[in-house]
């Protein structure tokens, strides 16, 4: 909602109709940052749900909240110089990788239970709970 509000505000500020503005560098940055966040959102939702359902809900929820904060940092950084958005982008990639690895660990645990009868769910939850605070390190 914040991103869309910024695009709408900048669109009105340019005094025109539609979303195509000529000559407004700031509007272009706002619009592209909004599009980038919108394109990354389905991937985020997919790995968040998979990590929460297949592995552990608490670390997945923590990583999800961190990702939303990081996307905010990316968006605001993108409005300044483009190099300011790089830390938010890299941090977001690390969080997506963490959620993806949680999903893979949950799937592997399912197949270990199915084929070998070994359940490592407690160990996986302990490891993910211990690793999730490390996401705070930039």
UniProtKB/TrEMBL annotation:
<dbReference type="InterPro" id="IPR023352">
    <property type="entry name" value="MAPEG-like_dom_sf"/>
</dbReference>
<dbReference type="InterPro" id="IPR001129">
    <property type="entry name" value="Membr-assoc_MAPEG"/>
</dbReference>
<dbReference type="GO" id="GO:0019370">
    <property type="term" value="P:leukotriene biosynthetic process"/>
</dbReference>
<keyword id="KW-0256">Endoplasmic reticulum</keyword>
<comment type="function">
    <text>Required for leukotriene biosynthesis by ALOX5 (5-lipoxygenase). Anchors ALOX5 to the membrane. Binds arachidonic acid, and could play an essential role in the transfer of arachidonic acid to ALOX5. Binds to MK-886, a compound that blocks the biosynthesis of leukotrienes.</text>
</comment>
<dbReference type="GO" id="GO:0005789">
    <property type="term" value="C:endoplasmic reticulum membrane"/>
</dbReference>
<dbReference type="Pfam" id="PF01124">
    <property type="entry name" value="MAPEG"/>
</dbReference>
<dbReference type="GO" id="GO:0004364">
    <property type="term" value="F:glutathione transferase activity"/>
</dbReference>
<dbReference type="InterPro" id="IPR050997">
    <property type="entry name" value="MAPEG"/>
</dbReference>
<keyword id="KW-0812">Transmembrane</keyword>
<dbReference type="GO" id="GO:0004602">
    <property type="term" value="F:glutathione peroxidase activity"/>
</dbReference>
<comment type="subunit">
    <text>Homotrimer. Interacts with LTC4S and ALOX5.</text>
</comment>
<dbReference type="GO" id="GO:0031965">
    <property type="term" value="C:nuclear membrane"/>
</dbReference>
<keyword id="KW-1133">Transmembrane helix</keyword>
<keyword id="KW-0472">Membrane</keyword>
<keyword id="KW-0434">Leukotriene biosynthesis</keyword>
<protein>
    <recommendedName>
        <fullName>Arachidonate 5-lipoxygenase-activating protein</fullName>
    </recommendedName>
</protein>
<feature type="transmembrane region" description="Helical">
    <location>
        <begin position="91"/>
        <end position="113"/>
    </location>
</feature>
<dbReference type="GO" id="GO:0004464">
    <property type="term" value="F:leukotriene-C4 synthase activity"/>
</dbReference>
<dbReference type="InterPro" id="IPR001446">
    <property type="entry name" value="5_LipOase_AP"/>
</dbReference>
<dbReference type="GO" id="GO:0008047">
    <property type="term" value="F:enzyme activator activity"/>
</dbReference>
<feature type="transmembrane region" description="Helical">
    <location>
        <begin position="46"/>
        <end position="70"/>
    </location>
</feature>
<keyword id="KW-0539">Nucleus</keyword>
């Amino acid at each position: 909602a914040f991103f869309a509000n910024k695009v709408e505000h900048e669109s009105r500020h340019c005094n025109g109709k539609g979303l195509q503005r000529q000559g407004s560098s700031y509007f272009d940055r706002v619009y592209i940052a909004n599009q980038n966040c919108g394109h990354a959102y389905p991937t985020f939702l997919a790995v968040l749900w998979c990590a929460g359902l297949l592995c552990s809900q608490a670390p997945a929820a923590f990583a999800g909240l961190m990702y939303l904060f990081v996307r905010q940092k990316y968006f605001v950084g993108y409005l300044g110089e483009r190099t300011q958005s790089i830390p938010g982008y890299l941090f977001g990639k690390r969080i997506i990788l963490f959620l993806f690895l949680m999903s893979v660990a949950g799937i592997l645990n399912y197949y270990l239970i199915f084929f070998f009868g070994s359940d490592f769910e407690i160990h996986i939850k302990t490891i993910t709970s211990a690793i999730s605070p490390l996401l705070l390190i930039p």
